[in-house]
Amino acid sequence: MMPGSTDSEQHPDIILPLHKDILQEEVINNVEIRFGYSIGYFKFVLEKTMITEVVIEPTIYPIPNSPLWLQGMINLRGNILPVIDLSETLSTSLKCTPGQYVLVVDKGSKALALLIDALPKSLADPVAADDIGKMTSIPHDYLSAGINAEGEHWMELDIKQLVQSMKQDRDAGQHAVALK
Question: Pairing state of beta strands 14-16 and 52-56?
């Protein structure tokens, strides 16, 4: 490192392991804490057993001719991860500021990155919501539950179902091209 320079100047991709190897739920002084994320107006949490990490202003490498939801790839400690723009996957009315924050979900070969608008928010004592249908216009195929916390509605995003659906769409598109 050069004298007078900071570590962030030497490494522009700043990684905040806010939740690295910490589950999406903690109990501190008998208060349940979950972590909430946002993309535009869509506020979501992940399943309690999901491991996450936040990367600030990562370098995203675009992939030519890829689907709109695939922003590109990032290199995270030698692991190449796809970066998914959920605003393109879930709803065209969602808008995410690209490149600000990336939420890395899961680990190893199952890891992927999601564009998010802001750093995670701690949600104290979330309460299960009754009817998620009234809470959002997002397709319910990817939502496993709703919660109320901090005076706001949050949806539990089923990442596994979302990825499975994206794989099926990709495979269907490849088959359609092969039939032409």
Answer: antiparallel
